Amino acid sequence: MPNSPCPNIMSLCINPHCPKPDDNPDKIMFCLGCGSELLLQGRYKVVKYLGGGGFGKTYEIKERDNNLKVLKILHNNFPKAIELFQREAEVLSQLNYPGIPQVEADGYFVYHPRNSQEPLHCLVMEKIEGMDLYEYIKQREYRPIDERMAMQWLQELTTILQQVHNQNFFHRDIKPPNIMLRAEGGLALIDFGTARVVTDTYWQAQAQGQVTGIVSAGYTPPEQMNGQAMQQSDFFALGRTFVYLLTAKDPNQFYNPQTDELLWRDAVPNLSQQFADFLDWMMKRSPSKRPANTEEILQRLLDIKPISFLPTLQSNIPANTNNPETFNVTNPPRTDKINTPAIPITTINAGFFYQWMLSNIVGIGIGLFIRSIFSGAVYSIFGQDVGYRYAMLAAIVTLVPVEIMQWLVLRQRIIFNLWSLIETLFGFLIGLFIGTFTGRILFGSEGELLCAVIGVIGGTSIAKWLTIRRQIDNSFGWLMLSLIGIFASMFLGSFTGLIANFFLSKVWNAKDIAWIVSFVIGVITTTILSSLITGIAFLRLFRRVKT
Asked: Could you tell me the CA-to-CA distances from 222 to 330, 468, 542 in Å, in that order?
C-alpha cells in the first residue's frame, strides 16, 4: 500500500476565495477545495497563517530544505498599493544587513489562483522571530524602557539606518510597529514599502509636487506631510519613536497646540538632560537643524553620559566621518516647535483644488437649502421684526455646512484637534458679530446678511491660519491672499447681487423675489470666488519646497 500523507502536516491555500484553505495534506500539489496550486514557485509550501489586515495577509512558509520564511500577500490591486509593494521588494533585495529583512532577487512573484481574474502579488522574506516595539511596550503593560536601553537601541537603529542611507534610500515610515525586537535580542527595521531612492528624478518630482506624502500620525515630520521627505525626515521619526519608548505614550499626547511644543520630558523620570536635548535635536521642526547624517548621530551618542553614568557606548564610525559644527548640549532649549502630523495624505495637487472647490459649492448649496426651510421658523418665533437676529442666524445655518465640508477636505492634509476646533468656532462667532453690525451700519438691513457671511468667511480664515501656522512655515502669505480674496469676493458678490436685484425688481417687476434671489446669487458668487482664491493659496502653500 502506498504511503499516505501525514494527517498532522497540512498545506494552506492562499486563494482568498477558497472554501477550505487549511484542509490539504502536505504531500499534495493542488488544493482540494479550489484546485489552486499549493507549491508556490516550485519551492514554497504555506504552513501557517500569521495575520493580516485590509491590504493583505502574512503566512509562514517552508522551502524544500525546511527553512522557514515569511510570505506577504497583497490583496489590494490598486495601482498605488502594487507600486508600494513592488518598491518594498526592490529595496529589500538591494539591502543586505542583519537588521533588515533579507529578500532574494526572486523573492517577488505573482500568483494566479484557480478561477480568479485577480492575481496575488507575493513577497518572500526572512522570518524574524520576535515582536514589534509597539507590541513589546504593550506586553510590558506600558512600562517604558530606561535611558540605557534607549541609547543602546538608538545606536543599533541608527547603524541600521546608516546602511539604508548609504544605499541612497530613506525609509519614510519609522515608528514602533515597524521595528522588530528579535526573540534572541537585536532590532530589525521592517516595512520598506514607503522607502524611496534618492535620485535626480526624485528631487525633480518633489519640486513639482508629484511625490506622495506618507504620514503616520505622531511620527512624521512636517516636510514629509507635503511630499518633501528627505533623509533627515527619518531622524525626526526616529526621535519620536524614542519618545514613545521612554514614555509608553503616543507622542501626540505631549503636543501643546497653543505653543506648538512637544512637552514630553516631564513624563520621563531619571532622564539625563543630555539625552533629552539630543532627542529634541533629532526632532527639530526644520530639517536643516536636525543631524546632517547618521554618522553625526552616532558620534554625538558617544558624548552622552546616561543618568546612571554607564560606560561610554561604542560605535563603528566610518573613518571619513564628517566634522559638523559642535552640538551644544549644555544650554539648549528644552523643546522646539514641532509639527503635529496629520493623517495619511497625498501631495497637494490639482485633485485637492477640485475637492476644495467642490466642498465649498456643495456646502453653500446645502446651507442655502437649509436656510430656505429655516426662514419660516425664524419668523414664526421672532415675528416680522427680527432685525439683526435673522441675519446672524441665517448666516449660521448657511455657512456651517460650508465649514463642515471644508473641514472634511483639510483634515486630510493638516490636523484639526480640539484646540483648532475651538479656534474655528471662535473665529466664526467673532466674524459673525463684526460682519453683521458692520453691514447694518454701512448698508442698512439689506446689507446685514451679506456682510455677516463675509465676516464669517474672514473670521474662520484667520482661525484656520492659526492652525496652519503651527504646522507649516511661512504661511502668513496664505492668510493675506485669502483675506484679500474675501474683500474682492465681497465686492464682486455684492455687485452681482445688486445687478440681479435691479433686473428682477425694475426690469422684470419681480419685486417679491428680488431680494432673496439677489441674496442667493451674491452669496454663491462670494463663496465661489473666495474659495477659488483660497484654493489657489493652498496650492502655493503646500507645494512650496521646505528647506
From this structure: 27, 11, 11
User: Residue 5 pLDDT more than 80?
Assistant: no
Predicted pLDDT at 382: 57
User: What is the reported pTM?
Assistant: 0.53
Distance CA 101, CA 123 (A): 12
Q: What angle do CA 357, 363, 364 make, to 5 degrees?
A: 95
Cβ neighbours for 202, distance < 8 A, ≥ 6 positions apart: 196, 211
Query: Cβ atoms within 10 A of the Cβ of 261, count?
Result: 18
Q: What nine digits make up the cell of 184?
A: 534572541
Q: Are the CB atoms for 471 and 508 separated by under 8 Å?
A: no
Round to whole Å and give the CA distance between 460 and 411: 15
Structure letter (DSSP) for residue 321: -
**Mean pLDDT, residues 44-50:** 92
* Res 214: pLDDT: 61
Domain 130-302 in CATH 2.60.40.10: no
Alpha carbon 31 to chain centroid distance?
41
CA distances from 410 to 211, 327, 403, 414, 541 (A): 19, 37, 10, 6, 13
- For 86-97, how does the pLDDT look when each residue is reduced to its tens digit (9 = 90+)? 877 888 888 888
Q: Given a cut of 90, is residue 174 above it in pLDDT?
A: yes
Q: Is 74 helix (H, G, I), strand (E, B) or coil?
A: strand
Q: What Rg value do the Cα atoms of the chain yield, rounded?
A: 30
Residue with cell 541600521: 160
Average pLDDT rounded to a whole number, residues 359-368: 85
Q: Is 277 among the catalytic positions? A: no
Q: What residue type is assigned to position 54 of the chain?
A: G
Contacts of 260 (CB under 8 A, 6+ apart): 337, 338, 339, 470
Of 173-187, 253-267, 457-471, the one with minimum mean pLDDT is: 457-471
What is the predicted pLDDT for the residue at 461?
A: 83
Alpha-carbon gap, residue 409 to 212, rounded angstroms:
17
Q: What residue ranges do the domains of the chain occupy?
A: 1-127, 130-302, 350-543
Task: Rounding to the nearest 10 degrees, give the CA dihedral for residues 191, 197, 202, 203.
Answer: 110
509 dihedral zone (left: phi>0; alpha: psi -120 to 50; beta) = left
DSSP of 230-274: -HHHHHHHHHHHHHHHHHSS-GGGGEETTTTEE--GGGSSS--HH
Catalytic residue from among 173, 191, 234, 280:
173
Look at residues 496, 487, 381, 386 and name the one whose alpha carbon lies nearest to residue 438: 487
Q: Quick one: which of 55, 53, 347, 79 has its CA closest to 214?
A: 347
- What angle is formed at CA 397 by the lines to CA 395 and CA 403, rounded to 5 degrees? 90
Topology adopted by domain 1-127: Phosphorylase Kinase; domain 1 (3.30.200)
* pLDDT tens digit sequence for 490-519: 788 778 878 887 887 777 777 777 777 887
**pLDDT of 258 higher than 80:** no
| Helix and strand numbers, DSSP H then E, in the chain | 14, 13
Query: Does the pLDDT of residue 387 top 90, yes or no?
Result: no
